[in-house]
Amino acid sequence: MTATTSAPADFDVRKNDSLGLRVQHLLHANPVLGPLAVLIVAIIAFSIVNARFLTATNLSLVLQQVTVIATLALGQTLIILTAGIDLSAGAIAVFSSILMAEFATKAGMPGLIALLLGFACGTAMGAINGFLVTRIKLPPFIVTLGTLTIFFSLNSVVSNSETVRGTDMPGLMTWTGNSIPIGNFRLTYGSIIMLLLFAFFFYALGRTAWGKHVYATGDDTESARLAGIQTGRVLFSVYTVAGLLYAIGGWILIGRLASASPNVGVEYNLDSITAVVLGGTSLFGGRGSVIGTLIGALIVGVFRNGLQLGGVEVVWQGFAIGLLVLVAVSLDQWIRKVKT
Amino acid sequence: MTTAEGRHAAPQTVPEPRAADRTPVLQAKGLTKRYGRVVAINGSDLELYPGEILAVIGDNGAGKSSLIKALSGALVPDEGEIFLDGRQVRFRTPMDARAAGIETVYQTLAVAPGLDIADNLFLGREQRKPGPLGSVFRMLDKSHMRSEAKRHMSELGVATLQNIGQAVESLSGGQRQAVAVARSAAFGSKVVILDEPTAALGVKEGNRVLQLIRDVRDRGLPVILISHNMPHVFEIADRIHIQRLGRRATVVTPKSHSMSEAVAIMTGAAEPPPHTA
């Protein structure tokens, strides 16, 4: 076995010769660095442009604005980590919010029961996506394109296209909009729930076997299966859990709007994907983190808010976010090509 | 078998007169698998004895991979029997074979490139922390898995990897193979099956992996090696199972036959001799 002692020589590390390569390796090892840099630069730039940007009042507004999107993006992250995509995220959130509101008002249920039933409905909608993806083996894009349309359609039927006012609902339904003042900063319960959910999934993805299996499945499904992972079960769990997260997002949405409206949320589907992509999670699966997604959601919020304060029209805000997404995806492609 | 015993092994060995007198660790009898009218394997036998490296060679379509898949649970044969330590076993899934102690390193390696070495070693059989942290919070015992991973890697002489927390995608082909082989050696209690482990590697790394396979064998795990690389097969195998037309043509040893003779038997250019090993 003397041969084995010569092993170290064979496993030499190559030196990165150029700055570009070094940056590529750095981003490859720490994918959160890129989005974090963008967020910090954006905050500095906007606070120079408009002094009001960095005030506690404005920052709490930014956080409130991103809370719903961030919650949806959390579910979206789990799915994108498995190399899937969920176009129905916003539809599930809005439909769940309408269902809870209807349960609590027209059906006259107590707030807690209505809320839990709403969560159950969101979870079931996620499970339908999961079932179609894992059992019928349809591509996630097609599945969620179909369910997006179906859920929005049912949403209109159930709600009669009418908004349910928050004042007609039990207090629990709009509780997420209440806030704790910290100086001029108003931290809503919705934001606290959102941050706790991120902490929970940060732990679940990094420190549990389920998390490892999510990454392994997204990285290479066949390899994961051969390694003994029940990839179908992992995928199903991811879509189902995402459904629950969207429903919680729907609850937070009621608090944010102080009503349940069937006509909001069309843009939430794509915004949740935007946040995930900006956060450095790869659309090809197996790579990314929920911290990145939180940063990605904050980037969207900071840009929208900062451009608005800077007097940029709404239409051009979309333009800027779109550009950011393209840059982020190009960056991801480049990082993926890392040579070892 | 006597040649193999003489060269490699167990100190207490008295040269055995005939291989057939010993109990194989893994034995297949008359395995048959048909796909419609196509017969992938047709009454194929195989014996793997303790402490040996058995190479399986054969032309494309000879039924090598079907035979191996049957042994590793990846396909269920239509007919035939498999015995593990003399007891009949039936594998319906790769999980069944794994639970019985047969580990397979697939050609695709079945590693998750984005996860680190320790994660990959324990992929699919992660260990949780003891106590409520593990049972309630399902927390993985990262430090334990890392030290175990380190131990397994160093037992196979590959402890030199800089960092057990390094992502597998940052490793070379040979290093990845080493991770996959270490995983099979760590968890395989009876048999390790390696499918073309050197196919994608350069000369140097290929030799490293061959050494790794010897190490696995010397630690007491018999190995089945499927390979197209004749020099590698003749360098490392104790016995060579030649598969032809869906069944075993013969078994030779690197001493009894030359490489070109083995290839001739494999391709049908020469009549298979009776088993010499």
UniProtKB/TrEMBL annotation, chain A:
Keywords: Cell membrane, Membrane, Transmembrane, Transmembrane helix. It is found in: Cell membrane. It comes from Paractinoplanes pyxinae. It is a multi-pass membrane protein. The chain crosses the membrane at residues 32-49, 112-132, 138-158, 187-205, 234-254, 275-303, 315-335. This is ABC transporter permease. It comes from the Bacteria.
From TrEMBL, chain B:
SUPFAM superfamilies: P-loop containing nucleoside triphosphate hydrolases. One of its GO terms (molecular function) is ATP binding. It comes from the Bacteria. Keywords: ATP-binding, Nucleotide-binding. Residues 26-270 form the ABC transporter domain. CDD domains: ABC_Carb_Monos_I. Residues 1-22 are annotated as: Disordered. This is ATP-binding cassette domain-containing protein.
